[in-house]
Predict the 3D structure of the following.
Amino acid sequence: MKNSLTDKLQNKVKLNIKGKNIERFIKRLKTNKIDLLKIEYIKYNEINITIYQKDYDKVLELKTIYEMDKVDIYGIIKIKKVINTYKYILIFIALGILLIIFLSNIIFNVQIIHNDSEIRNFLLNELEKYGLKKYRFKKNYQEIQEIKNNILNEYKDKIEWLEIEESGTSYIVRLESRIIPNNEVNNNKQNVVASKSAVIKKIIAENGEIVKNINSYVNKGDIVISGNIYLNDEVKDTVKAEGKIYGEVWYNVNVSYPYIYSEIKELDNYQEIYVLKLFDNDLELTFNKFKDKKIEEEKILFHPFLPISLVKQKQKEIETISLVLTSDEAKDKAIEEAIKKMEEQLDEDEKVIDYQILKENIKEDKVVLDIFFTVYENITSYSKIEGEENVS
């Protein structure tokens, strides 16, 4: 490897030779111990030869009647020539990188994430006391932690949690205000009622009197757990009824699915790499390039006036799936899609009980279905007791 690299860096010259009896000229060069590194025959009276630069003057003396032109150069002299030719561009790029590095260590924005403008202004002033503000140099990790801890210790009664995150040339500050708990107990008298029409499947009463049976039908607003406690048809006490009601609820869902289906699927392969952007060209600093990928990009070094930047990319490999389905396959896919959409709306303690296709429409490009769903769902709601309730 070392010998190969040394050989590549040695100065070489490629020459074009023209004349009669080229073979005689080659023999003359070999007789004079000229190393012929490469010989390319172009015509019977024309060749290209590659020699070491140190032998160039000697070949020049031996050429006599032959025509000789220098075609190319290799090695250190080639590198020097390229550097000399593009020196101003290289200087510009180097200065640009240095400027980007300098500017990337300056704070250009401090963003505080909170709903209250008074708290945002208060915290912004506190951060400025520690030098964390616009057009100042960034702080290192240890300094940021010290600033954060100092503010938390000083304002224990105001700030519950504080995080300072560096993002490019900005600092994003997130916080939670300390909330003094309200120990007042809500003793408002209430009933537990049905939030929608359903058939009751389960009642969990924590307080109050159950006034509906399992498998009975209720309309929206019907009382299921009453806050009025009855004895011999008279209200003896009124409490805050609490509990949960689960019922069988019904939905009609319209769903369609095409025969020609295309999906972009995210694979498990992902990588974080650095990319050098120069004008419209991206140079990925990795050997493992994904053919198709989803990219999340974070700028590391950049400047709006220079055409060069360094970014960090989180790349996730993707795969495009294309299918041509039959009407039955599209129908099955439509049902799967409808069930998935329905389940996404349900909580962990809720579920789809059953479904039935009410209407099926086979079109030229897709299948359209009307599906009736039966769902086990939490239908708990509350109503305030203003006066005596009639639960009969």
